[in-house]
Amino acid sequence: MTNGASAGPSGVITRTYKPGSIIYFEGDKSDYIYILKSGKVVLTSIKLDTGEEVKEEVRQGEFFGVKSSLGKYPREETAQTTGNTMVLVLMPADFERLVLKNSSVVRKMLRVFSNQLRRIVKMERSVLGEGEIVNPDAELFKIGEYYYKEGIGQHAQYAYKKYMEYYPDGEHAALAMKRIRAIDSGEALPDEAAGGPHTDQGTGGAGGHSADDLSGPADMLDFDDTATPEDGPVDPGAGRTALSDEMDDFLSNPGAGGADDRALDDMAAGSVFEMSDSAGASMSRGSYSTALDLYRKILSMNKNSNPEEKKIFEEAHFNAGRCLMELKKSADALDLFSKILRNFPSSPYLKNAIFNIGIIFESANQKEKAITYFNKVLNMPPRDKLNSDALTKIKILQGK
Asked: Which architecture does CATH list for 11-103+212-252?
């Protein structure tokens, strides 16, 4: 079923599987971490809240089995191939060296873990009977407030900046920006002002959570084993290559990640992610010209071949428009917001874009056009603060 492999202290194992092979079973214990090099792997787990079976496909270039390996607890899902498959297998020490060398690996891990954590929170609320009535912008702001009051400025600032990035017109936007500026200026935080210097205890790993805390229905960061499940012996005589050679070869191969998901190192080099982070940081500091230059560069690259790039591409349209509004370039901003309406009708930024178009027409004293766009926002789901803001705008423009 598979070729032999070694598990040396500084080597990476290459293993091949036939269709239908089990890489590992739920409940198995192993230190192996996997990367899907080619083929197909499906992770099967059981939802905690409903007991139903959940299947999640691993894409080329993705890790799986990371949390259970690093957290030293049993596998939470069964990994099975659905076609001829090749995987790379690392030990935790090799994985740590890979992470230190490739920042893109860390970014991908954080995205995956954060998505899984959101799913866990959703399931917990369901089990506890709290339902789905959750205001995500308020919850994100609360995270910032918690760290701010604890005197952990770096964590608080990160939460506030993410709040401004995703909810620029949110209920707490003004206070979030005030907090960001206070932290940037070095102003003493509440805990520090009270004379209680804070030590960042328990912030190792994924934001202070153990790997156990971050366990989700499917572990999309893993890398494992032989033709038999993980407790099988490993042949020390076959398939071993030096970690640096094998991983560098894999991560630098433009085709290794497939059309949907490029290899991790290539993703780091494809700096739309880094540019987006830098642009967001510049924007939160009020450096709109700098942010606009970065967003325009992202737009000129036109990279939207996978969901993550597509999200950043759409976000760049919206945030570039906001920067232009701040720079009093309303016509250019209107053009970008209109492109979102034309080209991305299902974008998460659509509602905000329409609202901002209304603001542009309002500032140009074109009341009827402004009301038209605010009316569109008024009837758009989900119901949130933007709907009530649109109603307020309409009443003001109609003189009510």
From this structure: Sandwich (2.60)
